[in-house]
Amino acid sequence: MKTAAISTVLSLLALTSASPTRRTPGNVTICTEANYAGTCETISVPFNDCQQLAAPYFKNVGSFKVDAGAYCRITYTADTCTMHGDSFIFPDTNAPDLRHWDDPATGTIIDAGAGFTSFKCQMCTNCQDKKV
Fold first, then answer.
1. Where are the beta strands (DSSP E) in 24-115?
2. What does the UniProt keyword field contain (predicted)?
3. Residue 75: which CATH number?
């Protein structure tokens, strides 16, 4: 009987810790519309691995958010992650509107979401989310 109770408690703890709203390093939120609207998904990704976007997000990202403790390099000018990415997304600024993005390479406002294909996140011990 004690074994069954312990198993139940452990199962509940696992479900609680797997909650998609939990804010942890390595979690990103991707949405099809600006300001974290439309179809959204919060996923936990491993650090230093290129993440290829699939439908409905492939070349269709309106906003992108990374949790404190990490930053991500997004790619919108190539089919997959590039060595340096096109832009860095930090948790204190995030990217609430990729449809009107200030492209660091050109200094112009572009629709980066229409080209967003992939991203890679890395641990950042100095990255703090000031909006939590």
1. 27-33, 37-44, 51-52, 63-66, 70-75, 87-89, 101-102, 109-110
2. Signal
3. 2.60.20.10
Alpha helices in the chain (DSSP H): 2-17
Give me the domain span that covers residue 44. 2-123
- Residue 99: CB atoms within 10 Å: 15
pLDDT of residue 129: 53
What is the model's pLDDT at position 128? 63
pTM of the full predicted structure?
0.77
Q: At which residue do the structure tokens 């950042």 appear?
A: 124
User: Which tokens sit at 40?
Assistant: 């959204």
What is the C-alpha end-to-end distance of the chain, expressed in Å?
A: 41
Q: Is 104 helix (H, G, I), strand (E, B) or coil?
A: coil
Residue type for 3, please? T
Q: Report the pLDDT value the prediction gives residue 24, as an integer from 0 to 100.
A: 66
